[in-house]
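quick one before i forget lol
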Amino acid sequence: MRDAALLPLPGNELPHLWQKPAYGVLLTCLQKLRVEPRVWSLDVSCTDILREQDATAHDRRETVSFLSAIIKSTLAWLDSDDEREVIWEEASKCLAERCGRTAMGEMTRRWPFENDGYGAFSLAIREPPLTGDSLGLKTWGSSYALAQLLNEFASGPLAHLFSPGAMSTPDEVLELGSGTGLLGLAAACIWRTSVVLTDLPIIIPNLAHNASINREVVEAHGGRVEVAPLTWGGAEEGMYPMFREPNRYQLIIVADPLYDDDHPMLLTSAIDEQLGLNAEARVLIMVPQRDKTTKDLLGLLRKELSRGPNPLLCLEEDVVDGQDDWGEDNDDETRQVGFWWAVFGRAESARR
C-alpha cells in the first residue's frame, strides 16, 4: 500500500511535517497558499478585498505556524538539495505575503481600465521587492485612483490642453516620481499622447521594464512613452540632456510624491524648472490624506508652490475616496483614505 504521506491532501488540510510529506505534496500545498495582492478599485472596498483574501486562505495563525515550521525544518526526507531549496523558497514567499505589502517579493499585477471615452485595456506592472527607501518600486493606490480620473480631467480642468493642435510637441506631458509607471502609462493610453516617465536612477530599470512590456498597448491606443532619470534638485551638470532646456512641458502630473520633510521644496523646484511659463501650463497633483504627517506635507507643498519665483496657484481641487496600499498589517481595515487632487497653474492663468 502506498505511503499516505505521498497522497494528495483532502480539501484545505495542511500536511504534518512529522509525516514527512513528499515534495509534490508540499509544493502543491504551498502553491495553494499563495496570496496574490488584489488591485485596489474605487468601486470595491478595501474591507471586501481583504475579506475575499481571507476566505481563500487557511486560518492565519495556523498557516503562519505551518510556514515557519517548513522554513525551520531541515526537510531531510526530501530527495535532493534542489527540492529542499524550492520548498524553503515557496514557504518564504507565502510567509512574506502575510507580512504586508512592503515585505512582499517580486510580483506582476494587471491593472484594468474601462471607459466609454477610451475603451478597455489593462497594464501589466512589475513590482520588485522593496529595498531600503525605494518606495518607487511599489504601486501605491493614488496612482490608480488618479489614472481612473484622467479622462474626466481631459474634458474638464485640462480641456484647453487637449483641444486639436494644443499638444503639438512630443514631450509636453511629464510625470515626476513615476515609480512603477502605472499613472504615466495610463495617461499615454487615455490621453493618446506622449508621456515622459521619470524617477530616481535606482528606480529607472524597473520603470523602463514596465514601459517596455506595455509599449504595444500604449501605441495601440495612440500614445508613446519615454523613460528618463530625473532627480529633484539635482545639479544641472548631472541632469539628463532632455531636461536641460527649462520650462518646456505644458503639463506635469504627479501622484503621492510626499514622504519626507524636504520633498515639498524639492518637488516645487522640479516643477519650477520643467513647467512652461505660459498661462496655459498646468500641474495635476494627487496626494493621499493618510494621516497628519501627509496633510502637513501637503500644506508645505502648497506654500512652496505659491511663493516661488514663478508662483503657482490652485485653480481647482477636490477629494475622492479610495483605497491605499500603504501599511504593513494585512489585517488593517483602515486603508480607506481620501485622495486630494488639485490642478495648479501660473498666477497669470487665475486672472484670465
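fyi The two ends are 87 Å apart (CA to CA).
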